[in-house]
TrEMBL record:
Residues 11-37 form the DUF2510 domain. This is DUF2510 domain-containing protein. The chain crosses the membrane at residues 57-77, 98-122, 142-160, 167-192. It holds the Pfam family DUF2510. Keywords: Membrane, Transmembrane, Transmembrane helix. The keyword Transmembrane helix applies.
Length: 210
């Protein structure tokens, strides 16, 4: 039966050549024994029943960015507003910012963030390749990882459409986004608090200066 379908056709459901009233699954090489009671348009790609969706790469893509986000909580952001207004040294206004940029937590958070970004592009490529090897037709393209977290979301949506399973990564992505928003809110609150203290110090310094 395999000679009745184009050899280059991607895996998916197609009208059964021997019975146009049903659809049969083409695995990319030959027809399988899996049939569907109704005709399925060729554009609606479906994976063979039981096709896997889980890979270690998608979990690395989702979870690794949490590390630099958590490290940012230990960055001494208040140093950026730690000015000595009574000092005659004109560089005193810059020492706090310099201390912030040279702090181990800041350097580690930024450098690790870029390393993880690069690794996740590679992990997305591996995830895409493994999904195809497992029989998922036309997975979400790995290049979308450059716009993270677009890849993890799109990948999950496409996998669910193709296999009917694989919602767990989408739920975890949502959780990490909420966690990132919470971390961002904490940092914004800290920065605004330190800015308020700085403004108070400026007013006090101006009122006591001759």
């Amino acid at each position: 039966m395999s000679d009745l379908a184009p050899q280059q056709a991607p895996a998916g459901w197609y009208p059964d050549p021997s019975n146009p009233g049903v659809s049969r699954y083409w695995d990319g090489m030959a027809w399988t024994d899996h049939v569907h009671g109704g005709a399925i348009p060729a554009a609606e790609l479906k994976a063979e029943p039981g096709t896997g969706w889980n890979t270690p790469w998608i979990w690395l893509i989702i979870l690794l960015p949490i590390i630099p986000a958590l490290l940012s909580l230990f960055v001494p952001w208040r140093d950026a507003f730690n000015f000595d207004y009574s000092a005659d040294d004109p560089m005193a206004m810059n020492r706090g910012m310099l201390g912030l940029y040279l702090s181990p937590a800041y350097l580690l958070s930024v450098s690790l963030g870029w390393v993880i970004f690069g690794l996740n592009v590679f992990f997305a490529y591996r995830d895409y390749a493994q999904l195809r090897a497992m029989g998922v037709p036309r997975p979400f393209h790995w290049a979308w990882q450059f716009l993270s977290p677009v890849y993890a979301i799109g990948r999950s949506v496409v996998v669910i459409r193709r296999t009917g399973r694989g919602a767990a990564p989408l739920l975890v992505v949502g959780t990490t986004i909420v966690l990132s928003l919470v971390i961002g809110g904490v940092l914004v609150a800290v920065v605004f608090s330190d800015m308020s203290d700085m403004m108070i110090d400026i007013v006090r310094s101006s009122s006591t200066s001759p």
